[in-house]
Structure formats: structure tokens, C-alpha cells
Amino acid sequence: MTTRRSRFALNTLSAAALLALCIPSVGRADDADVKAAIDANHAAIHSLNIGDIVNVWSHGADVTLVNPGDSTVAVGWDAVKGRWENVFKILSSVDIKQTDGPYVTTTGDIARSVGIVHVTLHFKSRDTKEVNFVETDVFLKQEGHWLVVSHTAKPI
């Protein structure tokens, strides 16, 4: 009986491994590309350069942003860009370190991610603040590039 169960388990594992090899790796490739887009978004924020933000965000009327200090949602590219410009006016530097995740799910040309980041904010006022944030992002693949369409970061 034990041998029969062992063979069944081995056959089941073998079938699962074979199935995994047959499934296209597109989702995994997209996940890696989305993770690269997350890194690019973090680098754009770190740069404190609005031109870098412009390059990683979609510019649609439906993009949204909720930063840690926000009490409202910025909706539309002009509002999102303006919100980032205001953030960059008060910071002298920002360091972002991913501490958990990002956990990415892609479905076609849409991806979402969630993760925890440790952020060190250096303000022009010379104050420094270290905070952990939960960060959620939604991306849309446009012309072969994953662009941010929604970003939310809140302290935990």
C-alpha cells in the first residue's frame, strides 16, 4: 500500500512538473518586466526629477495617485504630475528599499503589485523621517512598456 501511494505521489509530481514546463513563460516574463517597472518608478522618485516620473507613468485622464500624506486622490495626469512636483519641492532626497515583495500579478496588459518599502525622507527643512509603507501599484502595458496608472503608498 505504501509503495502504491509513493508511486501515485511520484506520478502526480511528475505530471505537475511536466505541466509546468509546458505552460508558456509569458506570465513570468511579464512579472519580471513589471518588477523592472517598479524599480524604475522607485528610481524616478529617488531622482526627485519630474522628467523621470513622466517617463514611467501613463499620461491618461484616469491615472491616480495617493501618496502617504495625501487626504485625497489625485486623478488624471495633470493632477498626478502636479502632486509629484509638490512632493519634490519639499524633499532634498529620498531612499526607497523594498523589504517585502513586490508581489506581482499580470493579466494581459494589466498588472498589479503590492509590497512593503522602507523609505528614508530627507526634507529641505533638514528633517529626516524613516517610515515603512505598504505600496500598491497598477500598471498598463502601452506600446510594449509597463507604465504606472495608479500608485498608493501609506504608512504601516
Q: What is the structure about, briefly put?
A:
This protein is α+β, with helices and mostly antiparallel strands and 156 residues long.
Supply the key terms.
156 residues; alpha+beta; Nuclear Transport Factor 2, Chain: A; 6-stranded mixed β-sheet; 4 helices; 41% helix; globular; Ketosteroid isomerase-like protein; NTF2-like_dom_sf; signal; SnoaL-like
Report on the architecture of this protein.
Pfam families: SnoaL_3. This is Ketosteroid isomerase-like protein. It comes from Labrys monachus. Keywords: Signal. With about 160 residues, this protein is of the alpha+beta class. It has one domain: Roll (Nuclear Transport Factor 2, Chain: A). Helix content is about 40%, strand content about 40%. The protein contains 4 helices and 6 strands, in the order H-H-H-E-E-H-E-E-E-E. It has a 6-stranded mixed β-sheet. A hairpin with a 2-residue loop joins strand 5 and strand 6. Helix 2 runs antiparallel to helix 3. The longest helix has 22 residues. It is globular, with a radius of gyration of 20 Å. The N and C termini lie far apart (about 50 Å).
